[in-house]
Amino acid sequence: MEKHLLAIPNLCTGCSRCVYACSAVKEGMFMPSRARISVSNFPLEGYTVPNICFQCPNAECLKACPAEAIFRNERGIVAVDAGKCTGCGECTAACPYGMIEQYVSGKAYKCDLCGGSPACVAECHFGALVFKEPDRIALALRAGQMKHRIKEGAPAEKRIALAGRVLDEAVRVPRTAAYMGDF
Amino acid sequence: MRDFDEDLSSDYKGRDIDAALHEAHFMVETILSPPHEAPLERRKEIALKTVRNFRDHINKGFLDYRKSVTEATSFAVTEWTGHGSILVDALDREFLDLLGGFGLYSYGIRHPKIIAAVKAQLDRSPQYSQEMLDPLRAQLAKVLALLTPGKIQYGFFANSGTEAVEGAMKLAKLYTGRKGFIAMLKGFHGKTLGSLSLMGKKIFRKPLLPLLEGIRHVPFGDTDAVEKVLAAARSVGDGIAAVVAEPVQGEAGAVVPPDDYWPRLRELCSHYGVLLIADEVQTGMGRTGRIFGLDHWDVTPDILCLGKALGGGVIPMSAFMSTAKIWECMEPNPFIHTTTTGGNPLACASALAAITVLLEEDLAGQAKRKGEYVLKHLKGMQDRYPGVLSQVRGLGLLIGMEFPTDGIGYKVASGLFSRGVITAGTLTNAKTIRFEPALNIPQEILDEILGRLEDVFKTIELPRRKKPINLYAGQVLHVDLTAGKIESRPTPGKWLKEYIGGWGLAVRYFFDLVDPQTEPLSPENGLVIMTGPLCGTLVPTSSRTCLVSKSPHTGTIFESNVGGAFGPELKFAGYDGIVITGRADHPVYLRIEDHSVNIEDASPVSGKGIFETETWLSAEMGHGTKTLSIGPAGENMVSYACVGSEAYRQMGRAGAGALFGSKNLKAIAVKGSGGVQVADMGVFWGKVTQHKESNLLTEANMWAKNEGTPVLMDVTNEMGIHPTRNYSAGVNSSRNRLDSETIKALKIGDRSCASCPLGCGNFTSANGVQVEGPEYETLCMGGSNCEMNDIEQVMRFNRSCDDLGLDTMSAGATIALAMEMTEAGVHNYGLSFGDPEGYLKVIGEIARLSTPRGKDLALGAARLAKKLGRDEAAAHSKGLEMPAYDPRASYGMGLAYATSERGACHLRAFTIFAEDPFKLKAMAREVIEGQNTNAAKWSLCLCDFWGSVDRSVMAELLTAGLGRQVSERDLLTAGERIWNLVRLFNTRAGFTAAQDTLSKKLTHTALAGGPHAGRVLNEEDLEKMKELYYHLRGWDRKGRPGKEKLRELGLGHL
Questions:
Q1: How many CB atoms lie within 10 A of CB B21?
Q2: Which of B162, B526, B645, B960 could form a disulfide with B687 if both were Cys (CB 3.0 to 4.6 A apart)?
Q3: Which of B613, B576, B614, B574 minimizes the C-alpha distance to B597?
Q4: Could you confirm whether B60 is annotated as catalytic?
Q5: 10 Å Cβ neighbour count for B58?
Q6: Is-contact B957 B540, C-beta < 8 A?
């Protein structure tokens, strides 16, 4: 089974090292606005949701591309052929997770899992991003995140809307620990 | 877009007369059926056929450049019908017409009066016999003779603008007998060979050289250049027939010449005896707000060219006209210039009807009013989107928008297109886009277009304005809130070298900005917010942002910093820092979105807490906006109000919040889309990884990740330096209710500042109260020091302070003092140690100054003690409440507090782990070393958790990022320089050695309990340490930096 990038929001601290690392690898500078991964931070609630590309099995971006510039490679990664991309933006509109964006030129860019060795995972020291063959729990987690499909808005708006739903569903029961008995 | 090549392979196989007839019938049938009755399928077929026909029979090249094809979602936009200012394509999609067919549609599309005249004439006679005299042409010539300025009396009619120019050139040559012309750079007069010779653009002209000889080009608007050429031509015997120009250059992007240009051209032409040709093809017929463009300057040309709108937007029509005197040259042989179709009855009917519309509907007047309206709005947008719209200009409704690059212009053009607005601007030629709608465009459509245009501007991502320098953004924002003025200025490179960034750089800016005698809460005080060079990179713990100003709490210069992600975002927006001066006249916030920086109204959140303010700002600017803001405490200028960020992070100490409040500055909110660049990403990343693995994520450092600052509860209690019960004891016997184990049990998540792999923040939750924290200082000041050994109450205290915008340390210390005063019977504040009710209630009273008790406690511990006549009851230095490390059992901390620029602060030197904390000489040395190192550390804006890491790593990372050598010594020298500069400021503010002291609580009252019970740090010992400290620093006995030392540090001139 192929490896999946998995995001575990409950473990994410919002440090954004994944975002910094991604832009450094892909753009040669620290530039979160161009990263292929992002984090939606809810500081007041103390929660952060990593927004990742799921490399969807039935990828909307791929289906939407009129130029056949988006394809699935032999590793199962949904990739953009910049040479073929006409910059029409159909993929950006189609992705329900806000995970494919465009340069000023119009050309699309998205996560390609760094070809199988994702830099974001290497920089996550909290276990909130993992790259592995998914087990049942991981698949359920992934499915739970993928079910929130946002149709409208710019990519950033879709990401935050999706993250908001993940936060709403997160089990955030305050732990009332043993100390309560001390008083 | 559909793949047309695949869908519609070419069906053209050479000559086929049957197919020709069939295809002709197809379109004739289509034309004959009413436009909206054709079935959708047929219209789709036509849309596809049109693209194919363009590809196979017109010019493939158009398909690559036209937005109507390249931007269309599934079907190319195929022209179908239109009315007024609305175009409808074959698939019934509506577009608002901003292009006006490049000035063709001045009367709108299909003006009913013009259409009626043309239809009627069509039924009478569409063309003329070529032999009889045609009445329409003759009458139109008369009408135009009456309409045109001066003595222009005769006209010749043709079909297109370029023909009018060709005719004008022939007339000028005939009349003068000379062959030369002077034309304008960037001018446009048409693309046939004669007028192409006048063309002022290489791209159209060069491939067709040689063209007519004797043509000279000069810059548009420059009459001196015209005169030089005329004089030179005369002196070498070259004949110049005419000077040709457009009143306002259209194709060049609505370039309006200087006011004296046309009058002076007229003078020059008359003086040198050459003709003046005005090409009014685009500017004529009301376009610029007068009937003709030259009417603006009351100039009469010798020859006038008309076109475009002359034909009423219905039939092609152009003309050149001149005076009776000049026209004489064509009278001997009237056939010297003729055309079969020019001035045909249909065209003349159209033009005559159009002129009635022009005059009856006062199109020129409409153009003038609407043009002024549009220019005003576009100029507003130019201010709001400075990097998007670089220039706006024009006259009447011939308006040009200039963009910094073709790329941005094309983005605007295509963005408008996708929002249903038609405009020019192709992939390769979009630097200027013309705003040229019908002159009778309804106001609501005009407003709709302006609204959509602004929507487009909002989406434009700008390329970096300047090549960023390594690690720094290179720009600092200067904001004057009184004047509402905002400027971005480069950061002086010398300062970056000498002061690194962060604290140091902020101090340097502040030193020049504010007089040391300034009243802290006056508009004359300024504040400087600064990030560090490593901020916004993968260097761990690098994201802090510091603020430097003169403190309302201590009266000294001070620095306060905050973690989180504000700093990186500011750098991504393109600024290393912000310098703020003055005072707004109502509550405002500073809104920074890359190059767009504005002062905005903040009254909707006036009086609101930080949490609500942040939520509101996110709604205003979008999620992910990073903010610094204040709560009611800051607005009410409580002198220990903090500035909050990301709900639970603060620039806590010494009253940064009060300073925001004094400036009516509720918040600073930033969204940035840029990046931070390093010299060599590979080398830099390598260093970061090495540092992270060998220095930060080590076994010895895991306390930060696992416990965070609450681990200090045990450490300080064991040392006996844990302030308890208003600094009376050094040990809290109930500390196990507030310790890291307690926090762990309540923790529901780890939190990090940007780029930090340690994540020391503990997000805790208990019985409905959630907070990131409490951190050690809060646990001690709001917990032990108030004997509040109930973590849930401390969490509530923590959360309330964070929301209301109070420093938990000063608040805890002040409440503890009030508790002691109440219990001692000095003054009854209704507060007692360990009692949660008053403890929690009073926080809001302080922040809102809502009760006498709140107002008293808002003074802070030092002033409150003084007011109550119990100076000795408060623990502080220079008025800043002492932090959670008691100096009576850690002398180095005593010296650090006494000599700190902002009063009792543990972040300047931290000696609690010293081998012998009572060794005076060693402490003096250690404090200096710590202060200098920390000055460099805060200038790099690193977190204190860098504590275990030495300066060599800082130097290595800076070197790798900057691509130039930075040594450990450089950093230490910078630290010493900064320390001396803040000292210099405080000296000038009136602080001397006498204020480098600790309050009596610490020098006279012995610690009660713990391993160091009975100890004080007596004044004599403190003085001994100070004496050595001053000596080693090169300062005099009053603690003033010596001239020698200042010179050595390059501060001699200050």
A1: 10
A2: B960
A3: B574
A4: no
A5: 11
A6: no
State the Cα–Cα distance between residues B1022 and B1013, nearest whole angstrom. Answer: 19
Indicate whether B365 pLDDT > 80: yes
Q: Do A27 and B685 touch (CB under 8 A)?
A: no
Nearest CA distance, A33 vs chain B (angstrom): 5
Q: What burial class does residue B523 get, using C-beta atoms within 10 Å of its C-beta: 0-12 exposed, 13-18 middle, 19+ buried?
A: middle
Domains and CATH numbers, chain B: 4-78 (no CATH), 112-360 (3.40.640.10), 363-459 (3.90.1150.10), 475-671 (3.60.9.10), 685-698+883-1054 (1.10.599.10), 708-869 (1.10.569.10)
Q: What is the mean pLDDT of residues B530-555?
A: 96
Question: Which run of H or of E encompasses B800?
Answer: helix B791-804
Residues of B in contact with A107 (CB under 8 A): none
What does the pLDDT look like over B706-749, one tens digit per residue?
A: 899 999 999 999 999 999 999 999 999 999 999 999 999 999 99
Interchain proximity B1–A86, CB inside 8 Å: yes
* Neighbouring C-beta atoms of residue A119, cutoff 10 Å: 21
Tell me the ipTM for this assembly: 0.94
B19 CB-near residues (< 8 Å, 6+ apart): none
Other C-beta atoms closer than 10 Å to the C-beta of B486 total 16
Tell me which of B67, B170, B173, B308 is the catalytic residue: B308
Find the mean pLDDT for residues B336-359.
95
Which helix (H) or strand (E) is B320 found in, with range? strand B318-323
pLDDT single digits (tens) B982-1032: 999 999 999 999 999 999 999 999 999 889 999 999 999 999 999 999 999
pLDDT at A173 over 60: no
Q: What is the mean pLDDT of residues B220-239?
A: 94
**What distance in Å separates residue B761's CA from the closest CA in chain A?**
9
Q: Which residues pair with B591 in a beta bridge?
A: B598, B669
Nearest chain B Cα distance for residue A77, angstroms: 25
